[in-house]
Amino acid sequence: MKDLYLRFFFVFILSTGFSLSFFAQKEDDQQALNALEKEKAEKNKEKKDKIKKGWNFGGLPALSFDSDLGFQFGALVNLYHYGDGSRYPMYNHSLYLEASWFTKGSGIFRFYYDSDRLIKGIRTSLDISYMPDQAFYLFGYNGYEAVYNSDWIDPDSPAYKTRMFYRLKRQFFRVKLDFQGKITNSGKIKWLAGADFYNIYQTTVDIDRLNKGKSEDKLLPDTATLYDKYLEWGIIPESEKNGGYFTAIKGGVVFDTRDNEPNPGRGLWAEVILIGAPKFTSSMDQGFMKLAITYRQYFTLVKDKLTFAYRLAFQSTIAGYAPTYVQQLMYYSKMVGAYNEGLGGAKTIRGIKRNRLVGDGWVLGNFELRWKFVKFHWIKQNWYLAMSGFFDTGRVIKYIEVKDKIENTNIVYPPGEDQADYFNFGGDHFHNSAGAGLHVAMNQNFIIAIDYGMALDKQDGNSGLYVGLNFLF
After folding, report:
1. What contacts 200, CB < 8 A, 6 or more positions away?
2. Tens-place pLDDT, residues 69-106
3. What is the maximal distance between C-alpha atoms in the chain?
4. Any domain includes 12
5. Mapping DSSP to helix (H, G, I), strand (E, B) and coil, where does residue 150 land?
6. For residue 294, what are the contacts with CB-CB under 8 A and spacing of at least 6?
7. Strand locations in 278-333 (E)
8. Which pairs with CB-CB distance under 8 Å and at least 24 residues apart come from 230-238?
9. Is the pLDDT reported for residue 4 higher than 90?
């Protein structure tokens, strides 16, 4: 502005009359206003996403080391097809591929496809996953009624048993096929139908395999795990000790008014789903039926900047008998990660141990503030960065039968131990955690998520750091 005033002064001195100076100033003011408007328009243009067309993809390497599982190698990639771009940021087709492997046998091999264009008028989702795990978590059943003793897995503690005490070996195979179609013309109310096939094999931890290549002072003790004790005490029935297979048939209703699927700013996303697993499609002694209800809502507090989101969920067996090896499975209309299991860990209650809560029925709550603090263009892609703060909670509301089995079994505990080291009947309540996250989004759909959560009770562990894809809900 200082240069502008000097220019006006110079014009005034050289002018032969006040009128000439006045008109010169008026013209320069208009030019300056036009320049400011142009600069503002350019800035707004920079903030707006550039329309994406055709195929786009994002990828993320998977490299890590675990002292028990070994080195992890792999990668994930998500391909999106936007067609002519007229629906952006909605895609026509999404293909997700993930392959990662730990040198001692654990891994994730997954293919996921999602599209509302494969079949006209119907959204189709297909998931095929194989996830072997040499050290899958088992903390017991019914939340805090199963006591977690961190000293038993701490090599520096005098009470140390083994780092594998709360683990088992599991091989997990899943095929999910889901369809959604419109009930109303607006598409806000939809029907859902689908089928899942699971083949779950489990056994005690393979200590010899995990000890392979370890130095003498790093060897895992070959001792009984919680899984072994639960078999001995009859908590895990003989017919369920090695898992089994089953097919679940699903049907339900979805209500969806979100303004943006990957990270909504406003709207509702709710669903009611019935899941039936008939005996004749399984290896189970009898079938079961579960009811799953999930309610999500989103509020814009500052336009395109700050959002408050929450999720409330309920799931319970309402008929038949569900085996212990399926009780950690969660059912909902769309998967946002490789595992549909909980409660505890990256996709349910962040910061507490994965699968810390396993019961015949449970409730879950997630409350999250999301702040988009910067948007930019880079390598011809649209990007934004977002931070979040969250509070997660949940508890078991329908218990797996444990207490009666324990009271009717003549259990001999190891020397120096008693029932209170394993069970706290009547002691369950809400499991809580809190934390923060960072999200890096490319073209709105490919979102790298980094969350850090802290357990608010030492019975749930200490904390957890999670790197993956997508917002939690």
Report:
1. 170, 171, 172, 173, 243, 244, 245, 325, 326
2. 889 999 999 999 999 999 999 999 999 999 999 999 99
3. 114
4. no
5. helix
6. 270, 271, 311, 312, 313, 314, 332, 333
7. 288-302, 306-320
8. 230/138, 230/140, 233/405, 233/406, 233/409, 233/411, 234/405, 234/409, 235/141, 235/324, 235/402, 235/405, 235/406, 236/324, 237/323, 237/324
9. no
What value does the mean pLDDT take over residues 64-69?
A: 83
CA–CA separation, 99 and 151 (whole Å): 34
70 close to 102: Cβ distance less than 8 angstroms: yes
Triad 272, 275, 279: Cα angle to 5°: 165
Here the CATH number for the domain that contains residue 211 is: 2.40.160.50
Domain count, the chain: 1
Confidence of residue 115 (pLDDT cuts 50, 70, 90): very high
- Where is 255: in which H helix or E strand? strand 243-256
pLDDT computed for residue 436 by the predictor: 98
Q: Which residues, listed in sequence order, are joined to residue 463 by a DSSP beta bridge?
A: 454
d(CA 344, CA 446) in angstroms, rounded, equals: 24
CA distances from 221 to 164, 205, 208, 224, 453 (A): 9, 11, 10, 9, 30
The answer to the question of residue 15 being in a domain is no
pLDDT for 47 equals: 55
Tell me the percentage of the chain whose pLDDT exceeds 70: 90
CA 109 to CA 204: how far, in whole Å? 22
What are the structure tokens assigned to 415, written together?
A: 């020397």
Strands 64-66 and 70-81: antiparallel
Token output for 23:
């008109």
Question: Is 9 a member of any domain?
Answer: no
Structural domain containing residue 228: 59-469
CB of 273 closer than 8 Å to CB of 290: no
Q: Judge whether residue 286 has pLDDT over 60.
A: yes
Give the single-character DSSP code of 341: B
Q: Give the CA radius of gyration of the chain.
A: 28
215 belongs to a structural domain:
yes
Quickly count: other Cβ atoms within 10 Å of residue 188's Cβ: 15
Across 428-452, average pLDDT: 96
Helix (H/G/I), strand (E/B), else coil: 321? coil
